[in-house]
Amino acid sequence: MNTKNVNICLAILLLLIILSAALFLFLAHSENEMVVLPVVADYELPAIVERKDLKVGVVPGPYGDMFMEAIMPSLEKMGYTATLVHFDDFVSPNFALAQGEIDLNIFQHYTYLNNFKFENDLALSAITEIPTISMGVYTNNLKYRSVDDLDIGVTVSIPADSSNLARALMVLEAAGIINLNPFIDRSKATIADIISNPLDIQFVPIEAHNLVNSLRTYDLSVINGNFALSGGLRPSEALYNEMLAKDYINVIAVRTEDLNKQFVRDIIYVIHTHNFRDIIVNPTGKYADFQRPRSFYDRPFAGWRGRP
Question: Which fold has domain 136-243?
């Protein structure tokens, strides 16, 4: 056997000795220490603890009361607390919601929310409808007992924001006071779309929260229900009350990113319980005259809460 073959054999033998020693050490070590394999739980994210202290944006009117009186008692049993954050106008509550200053708001209808969020590029979403007080035509002039008594040239204050201005014009049309162009998108109607104004009414757009006070200056005012109630007016005192279309039913709104949060599921669940409905339909209660959404009598189911 030549020297080259001897060297190869020696190298192979040395490698076998090394591998045998390594195997012996591994087996000896394994006898004293258990090898633990990873499990699914090692890869799970830590549970997210959702907040239970809710900040609720409201404007003057009955909806803050509705939340605290008809919704909050059930939420308290689920461990929630709530603080009402008051705003004086229709603009601030949506900006506050988008900026994370509040968790939800309860004051506006579908049309206003949709117009506002698209005009201001805000990611907000409605989660449920609520019973809503209608817009009405009010006056402080005692000689006007119905819309048939109105004089030529009366002055009428109406909301200045585009969605509620259009809504006010539709209310006046339904009351038989004016006629709108039948070929327009009525949700975007403006004063320029009036094609018949036999009483030569003078329209004065002002901020919605000032409409009640405007009755000191103008003959009539078309007032959102929440501001009418907070200003001491009752629907029974109105010359005319609207019949609400679906787009003008009020909603609870949240940030779109929060749609899957547990507090959202819990609010939706509560809105469809007997506890909520019993307070709303109480004939002697403050909400008896509110118009109820079609979903009002839907039965709650556990899936809304994300629970079995």
Answer: D-Maltodextrin-Binding Protein; domain 2 (3.40.190)
Please list, in sequence order, all residues whose beta carbon lies within 8 angstroms of the beta carbon of residue 274, skipping any fewer than 6 positions away: none
Single-letter residue type at 278: D
Please, are residues 123 and 241 in contact by the beta-carbon 8 Å criterion?
no
- Three-state SS at 122: coil
| All residues at 6 or more sequence positions from 97 whose CB lies less than 8 Å from its CB, including other chains | 57, 103, 104, 105, 122, 124, 253, 254, 255
Q: What are the residue boundaries of the structural domains of the chain, listed by start?
A: 53-132+247-305, 136-243
DSSP 3-state of 208: helix
Report d(CA 33, CA 197) in Å as an integer. 93
Contact by Cβ (8 Å): 63, 250: yes
Q: Same fold for the domain at 53-132+247-305 and the one at 136-243?
A: yes
> Is the full-model pTM beyond 0.70?
yes
Q: How confident is the model over 110-169, as pLDDT tens digits?
A: 999 999 999 999 999 999 999 999 999 999 999 999 999 999 999 999 999 999 999 999
pLDDT digits (tens, 9 = 90+) for 6-64: 566 666 766 667 666 656 655 555 555 444 434 334 434 444 557 799 999 999 989 99
Sign of torsion, CA 17 22 24 25?
positive
CATH topology of domain 53-132+247-305: D-Maltodextrin-Binding Protein; domain 2 (3.40.190)
